[in-house]
Design brief:
Strand content: 15-25%
Number of helices: 2
Distance between the termini: 36 Å
Radius of gyration: 13 Å
Shape: globular
Largest sheet: 3 strands, antiparallel
Number of domains: 1
Mean pLDDT: 84
Length: about 80
Amino acid sequence: MGCKPTLCHCGKLLDGGNPQGRVVRPRAGELTVCVRCATVFVFLDGGELEPLTAAQLEELPGNAIRAIRELRRVIEARRS
C-alpha cells in the first residue's frame, strides 16, 4: 500500500514523493520528514502519517537522530 496524502501543519502536502518515477510503498514504522518545516512523521499501518512526539524522537537510535538533525539543518538552510 502506498502512502496516503496528508497535509502537514505547515500547509505542505505530504503525498509520498516519487523519486525517479518509482512507486513508493513505505512500511509501518518508517519515517519521513516534511521538506518545508522538517517535522518528522512515522508511517502507520494503512499508509497514514502521524507526527512523532519529542519523546518518540528521543527513543530513536543515534544514527536516525543524526540523520534527522542533518535533514533539519539542510531544510533550515534552504529557508534562509
